[in-house]
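Q&A log
Question type: sequence-to-structure
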Amino acid sequence: MKVLFACGGTAGHINPALAVATELRRRVPDCDILFVGNPNGMEATLVPRAGFRFAPYRSMGIQRRLTWENVKRNAKSVCLLLTARSRAEKLLRDFAPDVVMGTGSYISAPVLSAAAALHIPCMTHEANALPGVSNRMVAQKVDKFLLAVPEAEKHLPPRPDYIVTGNPVRPEILSADRETARTRLGVRPGQLCLLSFGGSLGAQTVNEAIADVMAWHVPAGKLHHIHATGQYGVELLPRLLREKGVAFENNPNLDIREYIHDMPDCLAAADLVIARAGAMTLAELTALGRASVLIPSPNVAENHQYHNAMVLENHHAAVVIEEKDLTGEKLAAVVRELTADPEKLRQLGLAAKALGTPDACGRITDELLKLYEARKK
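Response status: OK
Response body:
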């Protein structure tokens, strides 16, 4: 069995494909798996690190903001686009896969289109509630179209067989033990644990609001707060805390770092999470049933994080604060209200868990294998 995965651009496109490929290799050890992606993208690092073969396929997205640099970049994108189909067909003929799977990046659309034209069984997976342009382009070409949430279907061209599978969640997220994690992280028995993060770079607005949250709860010492500042918040947050007179250094109730490398433990320990609304973050929150305050990033394609977050809020599974409405005072008030009401936290968590699909990786792999079996008949 030979399977080609087309993905790239962001971790939200790459990690689901890696999760499925890992599960596929577990079930079919001799499966020949090849990933294709941009040689300059993060996929060129993440895929080999995960133990899979990688083939370069040059492609660039179109930049919507009009600047001179983007005009030059878009000219290169158009040149690559003109040869995208022929390069994809050559790649497919050389590898001769039995099945092709994409995950909705600008890499996947030309590869899936070429696979459909060559009558190679193909499928795609959409991680967000608002599907991206690439997946909308191939919606009526692929043999199977998988959705993370049913709300995505209303944004797609009509077809009778959209399949809701959820988003893959890393096994270590699901298996982390809550009490062990809380002990390791220094959370006292009976203490509420607050986890907050705003992405690897760190959003200034999120860090500024978190400083006000800490200024409220640190003097009382009731919460254990784990916060990832991100790259741009490493110096910003400590400065803000000093300005507010918050005793944060050597405080056992504060765990401030640039990046969270032990997310399974941190999520297991948390009672309330403050985060962006990326598809993978929400998949983990719902799989574990964690109450959350979501601050969707407005700096993403088509504002898709807002649509992701509203799926949870509409099911009473999260509180959403748009960044344009975010202030430290407002965030602190929301956190104060939630942490003062354990039943409200519990109800948010239960509603989140009802939306979760912890077996999503298995479901997606099942659909891929069904596509392969259908081809053999």
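Response note: The mean pLDDT is 92.
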